[in-house]
């Protein structure tokens, strides 16, 4: 099973990336994931279920420890091979 995670950390700071945001991005970028896209207002990553769930665990633990007061995330099943979207067979 493949998963896609989308996440943001708060509080926001438009002038400089806060420590919790930097930590969250480093966790995701160093994880064994197939596709990672980081941006100022949201981040996404895809990979096998075990890799994504391991990365999400580390993301939550490390970004909260670095000062995040809120982490919003969504995890979607995207299929076995990554080509199928929700509802496709």
What does this entry show, briefly?
The protein has two helices and four strands; from the N terminus they run βαββαβ. By secondary structure, the chain is α+β, with helices and mostly antiparallel strands. α1 runs antiparallel to α2.
What does this structure look like?
- The chain is α+β, with helices and mostly antiparallel strands.
- Helices cover 33% and strands 33% of the residues.
- The chain is built from two helices and four strands.
- A four-stranded antiparallel sheet has the order 2-3-1-4, covered by helices on one side.
- Helix 1 packs antiparallel against helix 2.
- The C terminus is likely disordered.
Question: Layout of helices and strands, plus pairs?
Answer:
Layout: E1 2-10, H1 19-30, E2 35-38, E3 43-48, H2 49-65, E4 70-79
Antiparallel strand pairs: 1-3, 1-4, 2-3
